[in-house]
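Researcher: I'd like a candidate sequence for this fold, 405 residues long. If you have to choose between options at a position, lean toward the conservative one.
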């Protein structure tokens, strides 16, 4: 017997941690054994820079020998994902992550210095949507639309900022937004603006990283047919391995493929592409659609439990797999709540709420998602019980805080 590596000891500890905690981080999930097998396979040994030889985009060929099998794999993966979303859009499954997918998507149609309009990070957007600490904010001239007083996307603000900033690309999508995003309305706003100015319309990009699973299952309106570029992660509600993908209108295929490789990446991760293909097979099943319906029902049930106990929820509810608890009235910070719940075996993350008065390292809110525990078999009553446990912890924290004061 050889010595057990320190690494496997740590993996075993992490496996037990995952099994023994209530996982409410909205961006996490538990993949199937088959996804794990694919990602842990010998495909990690293979170099395959380039694209399968018969690729529609015309960027033919790989830069290495021995690629016949991975060519078949990557073609299969692409075909399966088009089936999941019932689309004839072109798809690139090589991005290593959601952030890499966004970088390549921007660079496929923009040049450094071009203007982007997106939802601000503090209102639920993502770092890669133009934050000054991210490449997106450094490379592009970014302007932001906001949410209104109720916490919902302010489409009028979006329309006004289109005219004020004249962006080359308008981005929709979020990491912490619990309501339906009206892609059709944004399309109409962009078209109306273009007709008015007589110029070509800015590109419309949708980053559906969080809600992709809901789009696949028909529980959120689809951006296909409306957006020019659609990016996503594969590891959130889609329940695949960590990674990204880019969908685009067929006429942008060549630009998108070139922006991924050689534009921003080298060799693709074929073991992860295999995992993405397995996840796509799973997402085509009725069982997956049932799973997503349950995620949404669970989220609504848990959110309603918090509302019934008197808590404030940003936008007053949820349409998807997550919601934001606004802790302002409790006097507790998102960070303290996150840490204390960690000690109680409940994992979630602090999150700023719209117009948060506390800095990002503290925040006045927490984000709660139901995708992971629904995979573990939780139903409405289980999530209501977790809400009650969280309430008990929050009330204890408030009592302790009052005693210290
Ligand atoms: C999670 C997320 C990403 C980034 O994904 P990574 O794989 O962590 O890089 C991008 N956009 C949105 C909206 C996200 O929620």
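Model: Candidate sequence:
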């Amino acid at each position: 017997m050889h010595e057990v590596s320190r690494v496997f000891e740590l993996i075993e500890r992490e496996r037990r941690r995952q099994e023994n905690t209530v996982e409410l981080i909205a961006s996490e999930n538990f993949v199937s054994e088959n996804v794990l097998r694919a990602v842990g396979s010998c495909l990690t040994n293979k170099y395959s820079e380039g694209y399968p030889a018969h690729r529609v985009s015309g960027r033919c060929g790989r830069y290495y020998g021995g690629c016949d099998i991975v060519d078949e794999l990557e073609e299969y993966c692409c075909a399966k994902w088009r089936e999941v979303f019932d689309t004839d859009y072109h798809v690139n499954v090589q991005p290593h992550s959601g952030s890499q997918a966004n970088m390549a998507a921007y660079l496929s149609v923009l040049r450094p210095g071009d203007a982007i309009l997106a939802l601000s990070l503090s209102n639920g957007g993502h770092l890669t949507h133009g934050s000054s600490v991210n490449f997106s904010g450094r490379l592009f001239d970014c302007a932001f639309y906001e949410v209104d007083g109720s916490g919902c996307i302010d489409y009028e603000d979006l329309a006004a900022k289109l005219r004020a900033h004249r962006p080359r690309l308008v981005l929709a999508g979020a990491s912490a937004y619990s309501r339906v995003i009206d892609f059709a309305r944004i399309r109409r706003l962009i078209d109306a603006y273009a007709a008015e100015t007589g110029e070509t319309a800015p590109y419309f990009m949708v980053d559906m990283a969080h809600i992709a699973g809901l789009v696949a299952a028909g529980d959120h309106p689809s951006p296909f047919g409306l957006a020019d570029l659609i990016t996503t992660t594969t590891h959130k509600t889609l329940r695949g391995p960590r990674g990204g993908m880019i969908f685009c209108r067929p006429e942008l295929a060549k630009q998108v493929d070139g922006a991924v490789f050689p534009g921003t990446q080298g060799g693709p991760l074929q073991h992860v592409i295999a995992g993405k293909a397995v996840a796509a097979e799973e997402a085509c099943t009725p069982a997956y659609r049932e799973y997503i319906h349950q995620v949404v029902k669970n989220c609504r049930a848990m959110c309603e439990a918090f509302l019934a106990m008197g808590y404030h929820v940003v936008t007053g509810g949820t349409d998807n797999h997550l919601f934001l608890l606004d802790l302002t009235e409790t006097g507790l910070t998102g960070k303290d709540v996150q840490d204390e719940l960690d000690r109680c075996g409940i994992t979630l993350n602090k999150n700023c709420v719209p117009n948060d008065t506390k800095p990002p390292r503290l925040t006045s809110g927490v984000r709660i998602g139901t995708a992971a525990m629904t995979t573990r078999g939780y139903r409405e009553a289980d999530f209501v019980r977790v809400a009650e446990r969280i309430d008990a912890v929050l009330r204890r924290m408030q009592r302790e805080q009052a005693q210290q004061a």
